[in-house]
Design brief:
five-stranded parallel β-sheet; 1 helix; globular; four-stranded parallel β-sheet; 7% helix; mainly beta; single chain; 153 residues
């Protein structure tokens, strides 16, 4: 998998909220703006455990990943590190699982994604509009959906 830039998200954000480090992590509104206007193929977005309240659709359907460089949203328990460098959550212990997944409290929420996306280790609850992955070649792994209107197509 080709890697673009690593980005970071915490429930309240931090510093400049540009997402480039944990010290300047996006909050939910900054993440939404980034996904809709800036994200590119190969970008990896680490979402730290915590509660995120989503009350509108996140639409990045105009932003495609590729087969070798998908756009990835990965729930993590802590800031993954590799030898002091920022890096992918390569250890299973870094992955958010069960009760420590990032919790997306979805009021009226949809994910409108395009092609080649990876969504991993996130808990979605209560979306009256359903959670929609509208593109192709997407991977949803270790995610939980509760009280979510859904279907297939």
């Amino acid at each position: 998998m080709a890697i673009g830039t690593y980005y970071h998200v915490t429930p309240t954000g931090a510093g400049a909220k540009n997402g480039l480090t944990w010290a300047t992590a996006f909050d939910e509104p900054a993440l939404e703006a980034f996904l809709e206007a800036t994200v590119v193929a190969g970008d990896v977005i680490f979402i730290e455990s915590g509660t995120y309240t989503l009350d509108s659709a996140i639409d990045w359907s105009a932003r495609d990943g590729t087969g070798i460089a998908p756009i990835a949203l990965i729930g993590v328990t802590t800031a993954p590190r590799l030898g002091g460098r920022e890096g992918a959550a390569i250890l299973y212990s870094d992955w958010a699982t069960e009760a420590n997944r990032p919790f997306f409290d979805c009021v009226t929420f949809q994910i409108l994604a395009s092609d080649y996306n990876v969504i991993r280790n996130i808990y979605f609850q209560g979306s009256t509009n359903g959670t929609v992955i509208s593109g192709g070649y997407s991977v949803i792994e270790n995610c939980k959906f509760d009280n979510d209107n859904g279907g297939s197509g």
